[in-house]
Each structure stands twice: as C-alpha cells, then as structure tokens.
Amino acid sequence: MQTAAEKGRRVLSAGALLGEAREVEIHHGDAVYRLRLTKAGKLILTK
C-alpha cells in the first residue's frame, strides 16, 4: 500500500500547522476555516 507522500500528496504534521497555538485560521477562497486542537488531543475543522 502506498503512503500519502508516495501518492503525491503533501504530508504535514499537525504540529507543523499549529506550532505552539491551539487554533489556526485557514483561508480558502472567501471562506475562513478554523483548525482547533482539543484538550483531548483531537483536531476539529470548522467553517
């Protein structure tokens, strides 16, 4: 089975996206999404 990188997808760790923050904004077109790390260590993406 191929990994995501082998399939040509860009692979990032959550730590690379969040750094020291618990939440980041992702702008896509006119929409703004929030990627949040919960206290339980899960990721939630909301619009």
UniProtKB/TrEMBL annotation:
Gene that specifies this protein: hemP
A Pfam entry, by short name: hemP
Xref: InterPro entries: Hemin_uptake_protein_HemP (IPR019600)
Protein's recorded name: Hemin uptake protein HemP
